[in-house]
Amino acid sequence: MGAVSGRRLSGGAAGAARARRLARGVLPVLTTLVAFLGIWLAVSYLVLTPERREILVPPPQQVLTDSILRWSHLRPMLRALLLDVQVSMIGLVIACVLGVLAAVVMSQSSWLERSLYPFAILLQVVPILAIVPLIGLWFNYGINGRVVVCVIIAIFPMIANTLFGIHSVERGAHDLFTLNRATRWQRLTKLQLPGALPSMFAGLRISSGLSVIGALVGDFFFVQGQPGLGTLLSTYIARVQSADLFAAILLSSLYGVVVFTLFTALSSLAVGSWYSSARGTRPGS
User: Fold this and answer.
1) DSSP letters along 126-139, please?
2) Distance CA 7, CA 2 (A)
3) Angle 229-239/242-271 helices, nearest 10 degrees?
4) C-alpha 232: how far from its chain's center?
5) Cys-Cys link to 44, which of 59, 154, 252, 283 (CB 3.0-4.6 A)?
6) Max Cα distance, the chain (Å)
7) How do residues 157-176 score in pLDDT, each as one tens digit?
8) For residue 163, what pLDDT is reported?
9) Dihedral angle sign, alpha carbons of residues 7, 13, 19, 24
């Protein structure tokens, strides 16, 4: 009887602990959402006049009824979102592959790193608008150009984080591989790349968010073919369709949050508790 009671108590304690963890994860999100909606309503009704409200900041219920719940308005947004998902994921995969390869090449020689790393920084800081004509000339103004913009925007975190992880392997581990006469390939595949995984996944989280931004930016500049969300945003601004504009912004923001959350979970599954920053958490949190 006492054993049964003990099991019930332990089960109840475990359930209470899970409830507390769920509350700690959900309550901050709900609080932020409520605060955001409250500020949105306050700006719409307390700051703006009715005439300006319709154009500048329509209230959330108007965005819901006039845009999101109307299939004729929502359908083109979902089609555009599907295109942006395709563009951003293709761009992210290419950025990851090229970024890791570039970091591996630079890690093999200090003079290679000094020669190539400035060009990686150049990709990060170059204004996309300045090279749009070149991208359009070389890759056309359709989906290929949008993918190239995604790659340019998302590649630097993969290069920087992978290179940092490779260089961060402990000196003692290198000495052990030297004593065992490991080849350069063995050192790279069995020591440096596995040791760099937490940094690589941290870079992947950043690049995943940047790929979404890259897809939207590419839509603004490359408008041939099926429109993406960025193209629709430009159209809604030109036509002063404020409700549709806010709905498209919310939809693109939700997509960005989902992508970042998925890759954060992937990082946690891949590296576990090996490296706390790979999970995006602080020690002791």
Assistant:
1) S-HHHHHHHHHHHH
2) 9
3) 160
4) 21
5) 59
6) 80
7) 999 999 998 888 888 877 77
8) 92
9) negative
Are the CB atoms for 9 and 18 separated by under 8 Å? no
Nearest-10 Cα torsion for 259, 60, 30, 71: -50
* 251 burial type by CB count under 10 A (0-12 exposed, 13-18 middle, 19+ buried): buried
Using pLDDT thresholds of 50, 70 and 90, give the confidence band for residue 273: low
- Which pTM was predicted? 0.80
What pLDDT is recorded for position 92? Answer: 94
Quick one: pLDDT at residue 8? Answer: 54
CA 278 to CA 65: how far, in whole Å? 41
Q: What angle do CA 192, 123, 211 make, to 5 degrees?
A: 80
Q: What is the pLDDT of residue 101?
A: 94
- 177-202: per-residue pLDDT in tens? 778 777 788 888 888 888 888 889 98
Could you tell me if 146 and 228 are in contact, meaning their C-beta atoms sit under 8 angstroms apart? Answer: yes
Distance set, CA 241 to CA 25, 58, 100, 223, 253 (Å): 36, 10, 42, 19, 18
